[in-house]
Structures are given as structure tokens and as C-alpha cells.
Amino acid sequence: MPTHDARPAAPSFLRSLGRRKSVEQAIATSHDETRSLKRNLTAWDLAVLGVSVAVGAGIFSVGATAAAHHAGPAVIVSFVIAAVVCGLAIMCYAEFASTLPIAGSAYTFSYATFGEGVAWFIGWDLILEMLLAAAVIAKFWGVYLGDAFGLFGIGLPTRVDVGPLTLDWAPVLIVAVFTALLVLGTKLSTRVNSVLTILKVGITLFVIVAGFFYVKAENYTPFVPPSQSKDGASGLHQPLVAFLTGQEPSMYGALGILSGAALVFFAFIGFDVVATTAEEARDPQRTIPRGVLGGLALVTVLYVLVTVVVTGMVPYTELAVSESPSLTTAFVLVGAGWAGKVISLGILVGLTSVVMVLLLGLARVVFAMSRDGLLPRGLSVTHARFRTPVALQVGLGVVVAAIAGLADVGFLEEMINIGTLSAFILVCFGVPLLRRSRPDLERGFKVPWSPVLPVLAGLACIWLTTNLTVLTWLRFLAWIVVGAVVYLSYSRRHSLLAAPGGGHPDEAAS
């Protein structure tokens, strides 16, 4: 029988894609006592979460890599471009999160503006982003732990043979530790995270100050190296925009600055992760905007300073001939090999907290999608005492640990960027849409000059995606196809909005 609004129990594909979840329905789902999270995070906690995930190994390597193979000293401009784009997008996140302060980040925001189809695919993208990011960072943590053992003369291998497989036990260990902490409560985890973040920021500042003593002005010349062909690069490994316009694979020049910006954007992904914790923030209308924007400002300053140091210490051409250019490479080239131990310690501490925040963000996205019925509803049940989704957190920890411990995931790094940018694009375009459809909603923060600024931010994010490689786009499209299969075969029929109650959890099938 049809419901009072004539919505069929088994909706057509197009109808299911377009159905939207109202803000009131979204907030109502967070009041389900068996599927709710505890609000105990302050603006400080949120800022630290953002800084924590953004300041990891990348701060010591991504700038050097972008300088060596993309932009030369002009990578400083690449960081500024990436930071400005991220800042514009983060303002859009802040407005949404202060208006709709529940778990799920861009997935939840898209559900209220674009409808279920877009929400599903952006949630699917966020799962890809955070799952891969957590696995990649955990893998790198194991690699750097092995390097640290070598630097300090500890002869302990980090790889063991388990039957026919070779297991990296270090990534498994770090994932297991933080999965346990997250199960016990988000507040406890953020306290541990705060200590680690303060420590790694201190190490970063020490390295920056030490590096400035080796900076030479002539190393910044030419600031924008002339464009040159990229030997040995296939069409699949060049930016999409260059491939579509028929350009030969190249590096440096104006295009190099833009492709460098797309690469270093990886440094700023932490702030969309912070938005996934909106349901756990106290006074979210105030704490979320303050937390994410304050954290972004600090991270931008740190990354620009590190990049100024690394490109000023040695010529970018010397970084380019290194197999894995990094800040350590620069110190070694100027005869200050002692810095390797300090940087190695900074990387270990940095990556430690990054793993935790990514595991948290991943669980909150899956939690939100599960609570809406797009993934099995049982995954969103929270523990009566800890108020965390215990089974979900443990299950995701097992998956991440297995990938990091057994697979070679380093080649999938750019997939993280495209997942982040796709979420940013929808959030930016969603702000003016929700303002038009629901001007009555209370907004703790408003993006200035809307709709112009949000639209410009969305277009800038689209431009950055075109500077990712063709291969990254092909892998991304493959993930979208898998997501379409899951949605068609399961999610659209099990969605709460497909149930007779039209979105009321107590009337939907579990």
C-alpha cells in the first residue's frame, strides 16, 4: 500500500537517487539512544584533531617531493594555493557542521541538499579516502619505525613470515592500539592525541629553526623553473588536464605549480575528518568553526615554513636526483646528518596520531551511513557505557590492519586526494543550495559573500582534481562503479527513507 505521500515501498532507481533527508530527520536520528554519540569535544580538541592528521610524515616529505618533481622553489606558491582552496572549502564545512551538527561530514550535508544518490557516492568516496589514508599512514609508520630502529642501533625486524605471507607487524600494532583507545571513548583518545600533537609540533619547530641556519638565498633562483619534459613519464602518469589538452608530460613552470598544489593538498585532508566528529562536539555552532579554522591556520604556517627551509637549504635540482626527496635529504646534503634522528622521531610521533584520527573519521562516516540504513544498521549500534560503535570500530580496525600489514598501498596515495576533493566540491556547492531551500535554519557560522565564495571554492577544487593523474582518475572511476553496484543491490532498498516510516528509525527495518 502506498504511504500518505504516495511514496512506494520499493522506489524506482531515479526516485531513490533524488530523495532527500530533511535537517529535522537527520537531527532526529542522532537522538536514538542506541545509536548516539557523546558530546564532549571542545574547540581545542577539534583544532588538535585537525593539526594532528595534517602534521604527519608529509610535513617532512611532501614539500620536498613537490619541489623536486613539480614546482621547484615555487612549491611555496603551491602550498599557498592549496591552503587557500582548503580554507574556502573548510568555511563551507564549518557552516554546514554548525547547522547540521551530526556525524558523517560531507555525506550528511549532501543528504540534506543533493539527495540520497549524491550522499551515497560521497560517503562511498569518504570511505575510500579514510580507509586508504589510514592504511597508507599505518604502513609508513611501520617503515619509519624500522628506520628508527636502524638509526638507533636496534636490530629488530618489523617484517615476519606468516605461512606464505609476509606480515608487517608494526602497522598492525599501531592500528590495534588506537582502535582500542577509540573503543574506550573519543575524549580519552583526544587526550592522548593532544600530547602527541604538542610533541610533534615542537619537533617540527625545532627542525625549522635548525634548517634556517643552512638557507642560502641563491637556492630560490629560479623561483619558477622553466617547464621541461618529464622523461619516462607515460600519459597515464600526467595530470588529467595535460592529457585532455594533448600536452606532453612535463614538470615545473606554471603547470608544475598547479600540479604541485594538487599533490600537496594531501597535507590538508585532516580538516574534513574533523567535521565527521560534529555529533561529539560541545556547543558545535561555536566550537566547530573555531576548531577547524584555527587548526588550518597553524598547519598552513608550519607547512610553508618547512617548504621555505627545504628549498632554501639545497637547490631543487639536487632534491630531484634523490630517490625519495625529503627534509632529511636536505639536511644530509648540507652535512647535518644528525637531523635524521630528530626528524625520524618527529615522523614517528607525527604518524602515530594521524592513524588515530583517520580511524576515528572512517568509523564516523560508516556509522552515519549505517544509521541511515545505506549500510547494515547493526553497525551503528553504540555501547551503553562507552557511547562508541564498538563492533564497527573493531571491524574497521581489523580491515585497516590487514591492508597495512599485508599489502603494498603506497601507490594509492593520490586516491586519497581525489576522494577529499570530491567531498569538498559538493560541500562548497551545497552551502548556497541549503541557504536557498532552508533560510530559516540557525547557522552558527556563515560563509561570507555567498554564493560567490562557495561557488569559487567548488570550482577551485574541481580544477585541482584535473591536475591529478589520469591513472588516479581511472582508479577513482572503478571505485565509483563498485559503489554503484553496492547501492543498487543493497542500499537503496534498505535506506530508512525507503521504509514506510519515511526516515523514522523506529519504523524502519533493521
Helix share, percent: 55-70%
* Structure annotation, total helices: 20
Largest sheet: 2 strands, antiparallel
Secondary structure: number of strands: 4
Low-confidence segments: 1-10, 505-510
Gross morphology is globular
Class per helix and strand makeup: mainly alpha
Proportion of beta-strand residues? under 5%
On the 0-100 scale, what is the average pLDDT? 79
Strand order of the largest sheet: 1-2
The radius of gyration over CA amounts to 23 Å
The ordered H/E elements are HHHHHHHEEHHEHEHHHHHHHHHH
N-to-C span: 20 Å
Structure in words:
By secondary structure, this protein is mainly alpha-helical. The chain has helices at 13-18, 23-29, 43-54, 58-71, 75-99, 106-113, 116-151, 169-184, 186-212, 240-244, 253-264, 270-275, 284-313, 316-320, 327-333, 339-371, 390-406, 413-437, 452-466, 470-494, and strands at 159-162, 165-168, 228-229, 250-251. The protein starts with 12 loop residues before the first helix and ends in a 16-residue tail after the last helix. A hairpin with a 2-residue loop joins strand 1 and strand 2 (165-168). It is globular and about 70 Å long. The protein has 20 helices and four strands. The protein has a two-stranded antiparallel ribbon with strand order 1-2. A two-stranded antiparallel ribbon has the order 3-4.
What is the secondary structure topology, with strand pairs?
Blueprint: H1 13-18, H2 23-29, H3 43-54, H4 58-71, H5 75-99, H6 106-113, H7 116-151, E1 159-162, E2 165-168, H8 169-184, H9 186-212, E3 228-229, H10 240-244, E4 250-251, H11 253-264, H12 270-275, H13 284-313, H14 316-320, H15 327-333, H16 339-371, H17 390-406, H18 413-437, H19 452-466, H20 470-494
Antiparallel strand pairs: 1-2, 3-4
Helix pairs in contact: 3-9, 3-13, 3-16, 4-5, 4-11, 4-13, 5-11, 5-13, 5-18, 5-19, 6-7, 6-18, 7-8, 7-16, 7-17, 7-18, 7-20, 8-16, 8-17, 9-13, 9-16, 16-17, 18-19, 18-20
